[in-house]
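Hi all, posting the design record for the shared folder.

TITLE: backbone redesign
STEP: 1 of 1
STRUCTURE INPUT:
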C-alpha cells in the first residue's frame, strides 16, 4: 500500500513475539497500524468489528488454532505463521486461502523478512483488486456490447464467450469447452472452417464474414445471420503453427440488416420493373450537374437516342430547342419550372422537346422534387402529345369551317336582290347569278330539274301523244 498505513491484525498468543514484530516493523519504518489479538476469540471479535488490510495469523493460540480462524476471514490476505517443523500445517493453510506463510525460528530471524513479505502480499492484494476492478469494468463494457465476443483454443473449443450470447438462448457457461462448430448452421460449416477459427492476423485475417449460427431454441427462429471478424492468437510474436494457441473474434448479428437489404432489393426490383415498363418517359436529373443520371426505355424511345447509355449524361437543354413556342429561352424556363417543383413539390406544364435529329415535338411534363441525402434530384415524367395536338388542330379547322359555313347560311336568310323577270340574284360583289347557282354556292343545297303539270299543259297540250297520256293517267 503506497503512502498509506496498512491496517494489520496481529494474532499471536506469545506477547514477546507480538512486541518483537511491532518494534521491528516500526524500526524499518513500515507504514502500518497494528492491533493485537492474543486469542482466537479476540481475533474473531476484532475481525467482525473492524476492517483490515492484512492478517498476520499464528497457528498455535491458547483457545484454538489459526486454521480454525482462517475459513472465517474473507477478502483479507493472510500470512500464516507456524513453528519449525510444521510445514505441513503451512501447506494446509495455503490450500485454505493463505497468501503466504512464515516459519518461526528461535532467533526470530523470520521477523527480518516480515516487512518484505508484508509488502509483497499487500502488492499482490492491490494487484488483484485492480485486476478485479478492471475485470468488472471490462465485464460492464462487454455487457453493453451487442456483439458476441469469443475466444477459442487451438482445437476450436470455446474458452470465453460474452453475455450477448444469452439473447440466442445460450448460457455462456454452458458453451465453455464446446466446439464452436456446434452452433454453426450445417449449411455453413464447410465455409466456416478456418474462418470462425481464424489463424491469420492483421490485414489477412477474417473481416465481415457472413455466417448462419444456430439459436438454442430452433423452433421459431432456427438461426440468425452474423458477420464474423476474427484474429489468430499466438504465444509469442513468432506466428507459426507451434505458437498458435487459439482465436479471438466478434460475431455481429446482421439478421435484421439482411432482411432489410432483401426487402430493399425486392422493392428496388419492383420499382425498377415499374420504372422500365412505364409507357410514359421517366428520367432522373441530378440538380448539381443538370445531367440525366437514369431513364427508362420509354424516354430513350421518346427522344430517339438509341440506348440508355446515350441518354445518360445529356442535359435537358440538349433535348430541347433553344426557344419554346412562347419565345422564352428553354434553359431559362426549365430552371424556373425546376425551382417551382422544389418549392411546391410538383410542377406540370407543356414543353417542346427534340428528337436526336433535332425534330421538335410537344410533350406534357411533370417534375417532382427529390432529396436523397445531401443531393437534390428531379424526377421527370414526359408524355408525347403530338396526336393530341394534331387532333386539336383538326378540331380548330373544323370549327372554323363550320363557322364560315354558318356565316354563308345566314347570308341566304337576309334580303336578296332578285330580278323580277329572269329571277337572277345579285351577289355582294354586284354580279347577277342564276338562282340555282347562287343557292348552290352559298349553301349545301343542289338542284335536279323537272317540269310541273301546268307548264306541261302549256308546252304540250295540243300534242296527240300528250292528250292520250293524260287520258290513260286519268283511267288509272
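Okay, here is what came back for every position:
SEQUENCE:
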Amino acid at each position: 500500500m503506497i503512502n498509506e498505513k496498512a491496517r494489520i491484525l496481529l494474532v499471536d498468543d506469545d506477547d514477546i513475539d507480538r512486541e518483537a514484530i511491532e518494534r521491528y516493523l516500526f524500526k524499518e519504518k513500515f507504514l502500518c497500524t497494528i492491533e493485537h489479538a492474543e486469542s482466537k476469540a479476540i481475533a474473531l471479535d476484532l475481525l467482525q468489528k473492524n476492517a483490515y488490510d492484512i492478517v498476520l495469523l499464528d497457528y498455535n493460540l491458547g483457545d484454538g488454532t489459526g486454521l480454525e480462524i482462517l475459513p472465517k476471514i474473507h477478502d483479507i490476505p493472510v500470512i500464516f505463521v507456524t513453528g519449525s517443523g510444521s510445514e505441513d500445517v503451512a501447506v494446509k493453510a495455503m490450500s485454505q486461502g493463505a497468501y503466504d506463510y512464515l516459519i518461526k525460528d528461535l532467533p526470530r530471524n523470520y521477523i527480518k523478512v516480515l516487512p518484505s513479505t508484508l509488502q509483497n502480499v499487500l502488492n499482490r492484494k492491490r494487484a488483484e483488486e485492480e485486476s478485479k476492478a478492471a475485470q468488472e469494468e471490462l465485464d460492464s463494457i462487454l455487457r453493453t456490447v451487442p456483439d458476441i465476443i469469443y475466444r477459442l483454443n487451438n482445437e476450436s473449443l470455446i474458452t470465453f464467450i460474452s453475455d450477448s450470447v444469452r439473447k440466442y438462448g445460450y448460457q455462456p457457461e454452458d458453451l465453455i469447452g464446446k466446439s464452436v462448430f456446434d452452433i454453426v448452421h450445417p449449411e455453413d460449416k464447410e465455409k466456416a472452417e478456418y474462418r470462425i477459427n481464424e489463424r491469420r492476423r492483421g490485414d489477412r485475417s477474417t473481416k465481415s464474414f457472413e455466417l448462419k449460427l444456430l439459436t438454442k431454441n430452433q423452433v421459431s427462429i432456427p438461426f440468425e445471420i452474423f458477420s464474423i471478424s476474427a484474429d489468430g492468437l499466438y504465444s509469442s510474436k513468432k506466428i507459426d503453427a507451434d505458437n498458435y494457441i487459439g482465436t479471438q473474434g466478434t460475431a455481429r448479428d446482421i439478421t435484421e440488416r439482411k432482411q432489410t437489404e432483401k426487402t430493399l432489393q425486392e422493392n428496388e426490383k419492383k420499382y425498377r420493373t415499374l420504372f422500365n415498363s412505364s409507357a410514359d418517359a421517366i428520367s432522373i436529373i441530378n440538380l448539381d450537374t443538370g445531367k440525366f443520371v437514369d431513364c427508362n426505355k420509354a424516354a430513350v424511345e421518346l427522344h430517339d437516342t438509341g440506348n440508355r447509355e446515350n441518354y445518360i449524361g445529356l442535359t435537358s437543354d440538349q433535348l430541347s430547342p433553344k426557344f419554346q413556342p412562347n419565345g422564352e429561352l428553354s434553359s431559362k424556363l426549365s430552371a424556373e419550372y425546376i425551382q417551382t417543383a422544389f418549392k411546391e413539390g410538383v410542377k406540370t406544364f407543356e414543353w417542346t422537346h427534340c428528337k436526336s435529329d433535332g425534330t421538335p415535338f410537344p410533350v406534357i411534363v411533370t417534375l417532382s422534387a427529390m432529396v436523397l441525402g445531401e443531393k437534390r434530384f428531379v424526377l421527370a415524367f414526359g408524355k408525347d402529345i403530338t396526336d393530341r395536338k394534331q387532333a386539336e388542330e383538326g378540331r380548330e379547322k373544323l370549327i372554323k369551317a363550320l363557322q364560315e359555313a354558318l356565316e354563308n347560311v345566314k347570308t341566304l336568310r337576309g334580303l336578296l336582290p332578285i330580278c323580277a323577270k329572269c329571277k337572277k340574284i345579285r351577289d355582294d360583289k354586284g354580279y347577277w347569278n342564276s338562282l340555282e347557282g347562287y343557292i348552290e354556292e352559298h349553301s349545301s343545297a343542289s338542284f335536279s330539274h323537272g317540269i310541273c303539270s301546268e307548264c306541261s299543259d302549256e308546252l304540250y297540250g295540243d300534242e296527240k301523244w300528250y292528250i292520250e297520256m293524260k287520258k290513260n293517267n286519268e283511267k288509272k
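COMMENT: The CA atoms of residues 297 and 348 lie 21 Å apart.
Let me know if anyone wants the other runs.
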